[in-house]
Amino acid sequence: MHDRSRPPWWLDEVAHAGAEHLDEKYVAGYERKAAYDPSEDVAALRASGIGGDSTIVDLGAGTGVFAMAMAPHCRRLVVVDVSPAMVDVLRAKADAAGADHIEVVRMGYLDRDLDAVIEPGSVDAVFSRNALHQVPDFWKVVALVRIARLLRPGGILRLRDLTYEMEPATVEEEIEAWIAGALVDDPRLGYTAAELAEHVRLEHSTFTWLLEPMIERCGFEILDRDVRRSAYVTYTCRVAGRESS
Ligand SMILES: C[S@@+](CC[C@H](N)C(=O)[O-])C[C@H]1O[C@@H](n2cnc3c(N)ncnc32)[C@H](O)[C@@H]1O
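A: This is the predicted complex of the input protein with S-adenosylmethionine.
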């Protein structure tokens, strides 16, 4: 008998989490490297009607830069990450903030047991940044369906990820140009050309023209899309066919 919550065909999410995200030293330098300003995401969610009464889930939350910025603007915040090293940082930040409406969960976003922590249909908004590309497209679909189920009718998904806005006929040139456009040479300060090349080689970023039908097929309406430098994509989506309540 196998475990129903993890059948034999299920993905090993820790093995796909990115070895660097499990490495305490890398995690310690992560925020400096990522240089992520969450204010645009907080503002976009607030403009979508997410506020003081809302329940928000951050999937693949990393060190919680978004979560800590969003925390003052919601009633319940569940931050989920599969990496023990990331979760240690998240717990330390939540404790330091003394914010008992923040729940830190060490789990994969595909984990069926997540339903026991977050009741399906109870979530106003799901946020996820640069975490979905860790898994192949089959699993992106599984994740998107599970996100749609977590959300209440009219709930919002704000999804950011490295996703290629490139044409098939010119994809090789466009990837070369993207890598050549790396903004730093020092890996402590950002992502170098070598790291972008590794991303293409080893990770599961897909094309926008594949991801968008997947998002829609999984039950979302794409309300807004923003693409920068051919690879940095942000979608604001709503569970389709259901108006905000
Ligand atoms: C590039 S970091 C992004 C962190 C954060 N969202 C940010 O934007 O700074 C990717 C994060 O996703 C987490 N992750 C990868 N696969 C995951 C999975 N299957 N379930 C939950 N978290 C995952 C990693 O541990 C890591 O913290």
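Strands lie at 55-59, 76-81, 102-106, 123-129, 151-162, 220-228, 232-239. Residues 19-239 form a domain with the Rossmann fold fold (CATH 3.40.50.150).
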